[in-house]
User: What shape does this take?
Amino acid sequence: QVQLVESGGGLVQAGGSLRLSCAASGSIFSINAMGWHRQAPGKQRELVAYITKEGSTNYADSVKARFTISRDNAKNTVYLQMNSLKPEDTAVYYCKGWGLYDYWGQGTQVTVSS
Assistant: This one.
């Protein structure tokens, strides 16, 4: 089993920045990649970014050049640095781990005011 715990959400004005963290524990050796999804009210959950064990990254077009995903293997933690935030980035952000199974965190709210 893998447990994922997110932190770092909150309220920020448009143009501001936030950093989300996702700490993994448990059978982390089984995880091949970690990343972030988000779900806005009335919309489907969508992939934001992910990073593989080897360090390769991928981003949704809507966040490229504004968001950066990184990982600290010593801390088993993945980060999402979000800059130049827009009101349309408002959503619940979920950490996800891909492995033998898919693992999800509980979610953290990000609200961007205009």
Notes: The chain has no helices and eleven strands. Residues 65 and 83 are 9 Å apart (CA to CA).
